[in-house]
């Protein structure tokens, strides 16, 4: 038996343990073309206006290779050297996949942005990532990008999808060049010589929200291909020739790792549906396209459940596996999905920073509804002890203590060294180092809390910080608070996730007003509209309550856990550090 848990995937990808060249795009696309599978369908795309999902557009591996090569050549022709940042701000359209793979082919760094973001989150991420090329749509460009261009000195080129050169929307005389996506790829060539790509070459820049400060840019490398392939096999049971559907938005890490990389690395046909959730449409695609493996979110499963069983087909002719990601999948939803789909339903756990699935239920093991499952092959996971204040218990030599007793809560930690592990937070080295603990910094601390049963199954307890998971998306409360606090009526705000049976959580804000402002429905509507304009609907509060003051620690930090406890009618816990006086700014002019 090999000591390398990733050996099978290395062999499948044509790599050796000492391979020094492993370009993600080459492994995901060109490898299949060289092997004679270029005519197999890589992407099967359904347009939003295809009302009955009856007229897909098939893109073969050979077609995808030609298009990504043309995009890579365009980057080279416009002076974009390896390492340059390229971002997409678009929905599920073929051009996004071409841009992502072409960026990787050229050894530039690809950064997907969530298309529902408003101008402020977009501006922050483009600036932090020093993005030089943006691929977007004319609508996104007009509504969200034009207004923030003065804040983006690094942006050199904007490529607009779905428009020809003669129909480009008006754009400023100064600033980045704006051209059609079609012209950009049309000027290229079908062949592009990929420069050698060492395994630790940066490939992806995924942004993750925290409780304080600006979003963090997690840097991943081309070696992540090994973990994408391995988990695609061990958890999702992917095989060449499968039809596979991951419903995750391509603006998030799941949409990249498992909507794009894992399926293409396995040579499957990946379904891409431009439309948003529609239960009848989803069931139709699952049946008509004979989908083998379906990877979706708990929110989507609960939405299907709410529609009712009557809409579900009697049989799914090819389906053999359903998996879930983004937030914990409750036992009731697992049992419902098992009954309706008549296949194993697997919950999976991982993070932006891990790059790939780390803990999961698996098709060849017992599934325990409500459990996260067990660590996947190649991953060592443990639970670390925390004190009453939520701090890790650390010995004088830096060693941390692992939870010994089954059923005891602890913080999930992973032993470092897996191929898709993030390699840094862009420009935030100290923050990156703080993610690793132990005498030899051998553990990555996730911030998530869980317990473990006698058989090694992990059970999610909650997040160790205040990051909100809503409909599978991670939202940092600070980002929402910062925009609320900009409103002239607001002194300060505190944001929490309020449990929701469908989305997992919705964003709720508590707002302290300056004197002279009336806490009425008109102001609440204005605050919500302000957030939607700046943040986008997906990131904005669903509910806003007005408050005389917010609970603070003596050092001035908003105690979101107290806000959450009060909202839910729960015990506020230890409030010994609570500052009981009203906010010093409250009532200020």
SSE layout:
Blueprint: H1 7-12, H2 24-34, E1 41-46, E2 57-60, H3 61-77, E3 85-89, H4 94-105, E4 109-113, H5 119-128, E5 131-136, H6 138-145, E6 157-160, E7 177-180, H7 181-186, E8 202-208, E9 216-221, H8 224-234, E10 243-246, H9 253-265, E11 269-273, H10 279-288, E12 293-296, H11 298-307, E13 321-324, H12 331-341, E14 345-349, E15 359-360, E16 374-375, E17 381-384, E18 410-415, E19 424-425, H13 429-433, E20 436-437, E21 443-452, E22 458-463, E23 468-470, E24 473-475, H14 477-486, E25 490-500, E26 504-513, H15 521-535, E27 543-546, E28 552-553, H16 560-568, E29 578-579
Parallel strand pairs: 1-11, 3-4, 3-5, 5-6, 6-7, 10-11, 10-12, 12-13, 13-14, 26-27
Antiparallel strand pairs: 1-2, 8-9, 9-19, 14-15, 15-16, 17-18, 18-21, 20-21, 21-22, 23-24, 25-26, 28-29
Task: State the helix count.
Answer: 16
Kindly state the mean pLDDT as a whole number? 91
CATH-scheme architecture of the domain at 61-220: 3-Layer(aba) Sandwich
Major sheet details: 9 strands, mixed
Report Rg. Answer: 24 Å
Unreliable runs, pLDDT <50, ≥5 residues? Answer: 574-578, 580-589
Overall 3D geometry? globular
Question: How would you characterize this protein structure?
Answer:
With 589 residues, the protein is α/β, with parallel strands linked by helices. 28% of the residues lie in helices and 23% in strands. It contains 16 helices and 29 strands. α6 (138-145) links the parallel β5 (131-136) and β6. The longest helix has 17 residues, at 61-77. It is globular. The protein starts with 6 loop residues before the first helix and ends in a 10-residue tail after the last strand.
């Amino acid at each position: 038996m090999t000591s390398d848990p990733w050996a099978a995937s290395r062999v499948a990808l044509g790599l050796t343990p000492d391979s020094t060249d492993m370009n993600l795009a080459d492994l995901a696309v060109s490898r299949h073309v060289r092997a004679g599978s270029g005519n197999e369908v890589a992407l099967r795309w359904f347009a939003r206006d295809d009302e009955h999902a009856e007229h897909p557009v098939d893109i073969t591996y050979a077609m995808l290779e030609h298009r990504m090569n043309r995009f890579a050549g365009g980057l080279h022709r416009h002076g974009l050297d390896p390492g340059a940042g390229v971002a997409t701000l678009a929905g599920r359209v073929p051009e996004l996949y071409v841009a992502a793979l072409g960026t990787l082919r050229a050894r530039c760094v690809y950064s997907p942005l969530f298309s529902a973001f408003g101008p402020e989150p977009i501006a922050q991420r483009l600036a932090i990532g020093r993005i030089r090329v943006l691929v977007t749509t004319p609508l996104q460009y007009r509504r969200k990008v034009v207004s923030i261009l003065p804040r983006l000195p690094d942006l050199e080129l904007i490529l607009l999808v779905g428009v020809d050169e003669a129909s480009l929307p008006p754009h400023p005389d100064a600033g980045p060049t704006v051209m059609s996506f079609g012209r950009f790829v049309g000027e290229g060539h079908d062949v592009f010589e990929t420069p050698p790509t060492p395994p630790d070459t940066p490939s992806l820049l995924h942004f993750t929200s925290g409780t304080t400060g600006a979003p963090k840019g997690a840097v991943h490398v081309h070696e992540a291909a090994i973990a994408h392939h391995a988990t695609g096999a061990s958890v999702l049971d992917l095989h060449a020739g499968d039809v596979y559907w991951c419903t995750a938005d391509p603006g998030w890490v799941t949409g990249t790792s498992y909507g794009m990389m894992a399926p293409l690395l396995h040579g499957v046909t990946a379904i891409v549906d431009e439309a948003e959730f529609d239960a009848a449409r989803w069931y139709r695609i699952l049946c008509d396209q004979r989908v083998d493996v379906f990877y979706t979110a708990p929110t989507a499963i609960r939405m299907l459940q709410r529609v009712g069983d009557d809409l579900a087909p009697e049989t799914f002719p090819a389906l053999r596996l359903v998996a879930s990601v983004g937030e914990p999948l409750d036992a009731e939803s697992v049992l419902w999905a098992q009954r309706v789909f008549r296949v194993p339903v697997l919950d999976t756990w991982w993070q932006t920073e891990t790059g790939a699935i780390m803990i999961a239920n698996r098709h060849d093991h017992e599934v325990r509804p409500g459990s996260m499952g067990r660590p996947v092959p190649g991953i060592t996971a443990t639970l670390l002890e925390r004190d009453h204040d939520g701090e890790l218990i650390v010995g004088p030599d830096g060693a941390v203590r692992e939870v010994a007793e089954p059923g005891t809560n602890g913080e999930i930690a992973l032993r470092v060294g897996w191929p898709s592990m993030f390699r840094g937070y862009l420009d935030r080295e100290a923050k990156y180092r703080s993610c690793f603990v132990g005498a030899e910094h051998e553990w990555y601390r996730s911030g998530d809390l869980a317990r473990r049963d006698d058989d090694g199954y992990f059970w999610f307890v909650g997040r160790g910080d205040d990051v909100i998971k809503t409909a599978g998306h991670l939202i940092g409360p600070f980002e929402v608070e910062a925009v609320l606090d900009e409103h002239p009526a607001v002194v300060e705000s505190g944001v929490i996730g309020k449990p929701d049976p469908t989305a997992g959580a919705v964003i709720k804000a508590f707002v302290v007003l300056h004197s002279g402002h009336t806490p009425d429905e008109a102001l609440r509507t204005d605050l919500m509209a302000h957030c939607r304009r700046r943040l986008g609907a997906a990131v904005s509060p669903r509910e806003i309550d007005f408050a005389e003051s917010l609970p603070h620690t003596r050092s001035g930090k908003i105690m979101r856990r107290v806000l959450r406890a009060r909202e839910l009618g729960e015990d506020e816990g230890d409030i010994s550090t609570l500052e009981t006086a009203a906010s010093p700014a409250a009532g200020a002019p």
